[in-house]
Amino acid sequence: LIHLKVDGHPVKVAPGATMLDAIKKSKSHVPTLCFHPEFDPKAVCRMCLVDVKGWQKPVPACRTKAEDGQEIVTNSKELISFRRRDLQFLLNRHPNDCMHCEASGNCKLQDLVQEMEVEDMWPKKTSRGSPSHPEHTLHDHTSPSIYRDMDKCIECGLCVDACSAQKINAIGFAERGSGMLPITAFDKPLKDTGCISCGQCTLRCPVGALIERPDWHRVLDVLDSRRKVTIVQTAPATRVAIGEEFGFEPGTVSTGRLVNALRMLGFDHVTDTNFSADLTIMEEANELLERVSGKREGKLPMFTSCCPGWINYVEINRPDLIPHLSTTKSPQQMHGAISRYGPIAKKIAEETKEEPYIVSIMPCTAKKDESVRPGNRGDIDAVLTTRELAKMIRHRKIPFASLPNDGVFDSPMGESTGAAAIFGASGGVLEAALRTAADALGLGGTVEYKGVRGVDRGVKVITIKGLGSVAAVSSIGSAIELLSDDDWKEKYLMIEVMTCPGGCLGGGGEPKSDDPDILQKRMRGIYHIDSTSAIRKSHENKEVQKLYDDMFDGKPLSHASERMLHTTYAP
Ligand code: HC0
Ligand code: SF4
To answer: Which one, 124, 213, 226, 269, has the greatest CB density within 10 A?
Structure first.
């Protein structure tokens, strides 16, 4: 271990640790703006400059190694006044209209202004436009999922890191050196770039320059007007992350609190996307078996189709892979279709002669994009991220943290199994499909396929006797690597791709976090739901069985289910 002192107090850290790690272990604190544990430190914001006894100049703590015997000073008068000047410099180029900013209350710049008490230095006039880069597109609202308001950009580069970690590179630096501004390739509107709407950039942006398209205001308007009957669905990965916004430990399972909060917001029917995750497995597992037996068109290996960032990637970059994509709609879109045409909608029509207003709560920004795809348009009226839901809850002063964790979903469209719960984690869709396919083939054996679990970027492979090898890919960058040669075509029967590292629980619409173990913690929550579920296989979901009897001629891949639960893709 390395022994050093921070502001006079002894601290021990492991070899390789940075000064910032040491400071975090101590009672001291230095602010950071451009640092995130997922990426290499760039030290451009200069907020974490510290002095070291005997050293001539201050150094950035984020990227300077801790060494034996160092005596670090974090808070000298000079350092504090340097930080305040630096902040003032940023504020001079910033619109400073927090009152209208979606990031307000969840913005590192705003927090720092308060922490460093530089409110007085705030320019009185809001300055629209970026004086250093008037030529670049500042306001880009062309994407159905992501808004760019670049006059709020503080040039920390975390969005560039995020997009490059995804190997998409839709945004990059316009210039090197001073005055770097992240822009799209050729300064095109985002919708005309290779952006797949994954939202990883919005997850890392410390301010309000990159955000999910805000739809929560119009949903609140509908709820307030009470003119429409509303149906809301909530995704597998939302329930293990929403609590973070209200002080719960990451991974805390808040399903009951979430249901209660949605009812208090005024939603008339609170339903579970997990119900439709079970339905998805019924279609997708049977689709796989029919492709294997040659009864159905479509190539092997079959790719999962529930991740809209992945679908965007294939359509934009690899249309040759379309025949490999499962035609099964995602749970969100199946749920949208059944909300629009199924039993709840029928009842609403009988009582009010109206159509319902349908909302989904997702950990994902690309789900906004998915809901307006040609084959889906109209089923879902608004898609909100987990972060947007948290804003609504705060806006309505609902005391989420003190709500009992006992709310239950409506029935129908509320029952789900452990197989549905694990959709929220990388490998989960595959594991859920295996549980059903293995039973259909009479393979028996295990419920758990632990080899496909895990949140790190990369590819996990397992081989099932009597079936073949299957792979789960965590992050689009890892999928791009896997697809770079043709090996995969021979090796696997089925491949799950999740765009975001860790799967939906690492989605671009989840709460922002600087915790390096955040994905692990949320994953534990997901598998806890599964292991404590009474029913753990999708085909044993009673509500799903009844839905097949009532709407889909009693079986998956029937004529009726092909019409409502499957989709097509186009380059
Ligand atoms: Fe997912 Fe889904 S599991 S994509 O990650 O399949 O967003 O949580 O809702 O639709 O169920 C996201 C999460 C979903 C869908 C489901 C799938
Ligand atoms: Fe890149 Fe994803 Fe952001 Fe698009 S949404 S710019 S692909 S990180």
So the answer is: 269
143 touches ligand 2 (CB under 6 Å): no
Under the phi-then-psi rule, with left for phi > 0, alpha for psi from -120 to 50, and beta for the rest, what region is 260?
Answer: alpha
* CATH architecture of the domain covering 2-75: Roll (3.10)
Domain boundaries, the chain: 2-75, 218-565
Beta-carbon neighbour count of residue 489 at 10 Å?
12
Which ligand 2 atom sits closest to the C-alpha of 366? 5
| Ligand nearest the Cα atom of residue 183 | 2
Q: Which atom of ligand 1 is nearest to the CA of 498?
A: 5
Which atom of ligand 1 lies closest to the CA of 237? 8
pLDDT tens digits, 194-214: 999 999 999 999 999 999 999
What is the distance between the alpha carbons of residues 362 and 242, in angstroms, rounded to a whole number?
11
**pTM for the predicted model, two decimal places:** 0.95
H/E stretch holding 259 reads helix 255-265
Question: What pLDDT, on the 0 to 100 scale, is given for residue 125?
Answer: 46
pLDDT tens-digit map of 15-25: 999 999 999 99
- Alpha-carbon distance of 326 to 300, in angstroms, equals 10
- What the block records as the tokens of 49 is 């400059």
Please give the angle made by the CA atoms of 208, 212 and 216, to the nearest 5 degrees. Answer: 105
Closest CA to 492 of 282, 299, 319: 299
The neighbouring-strand residues paired with 233 are 271, 360
For residue 477, report the distance from its CA to the centre of ligand 2, in Å.
Answer: 12
- DSSP lists the bridge partners of residue 149 as 139
For CA atoms 514, 516, 517, 522, give the dihedral sign: positive
Ligand 1 atom showing the smallest separation from residue 308 Cα: 4
Question: What are the residues facing 3 on neighbouring strands?
Answer: 12
**Inter-residue contact 449 to 440 (CB < 8 Å):** no
277 in ligand 1 pocket by Cβ < 6 Å? yes
Q: Which of 340, 426, 10, 391 is nearest to 216 (CA)?
A: 391
Structure tokens at 495: 């491949």
39 CB-near residues (< 8 Å, 6+ apart): 158, 161, 162, 165
CA distance 63 to 35: 9
pLDDT confidence bin for 129, thresholds 50/70/90: very low
Which strands make up the sheet holding 357-362, listed edge to edge? 269-272, 230-234, 357-362, 382-385
Query: What's the CA-to-centroid distance between 199 and ligand 1, angstroms?
Result: 15
Q: Best mutation site among 273, 284, 429, 523 for ligand 1, i.e. most ligand atoms within 8 A of its Cβ?
A: 273
Q: What angle do CA 170, 214, 228 make, to 5 degrees?
A: 140
Closest ligand relative to 193 C-alpha? 2
CB of 403 shorter than 6 A to ligand 2: no
**Peptide bond just before 301 cis, omega within 30 deg:** yes
d(CA 571, CA 551): 31
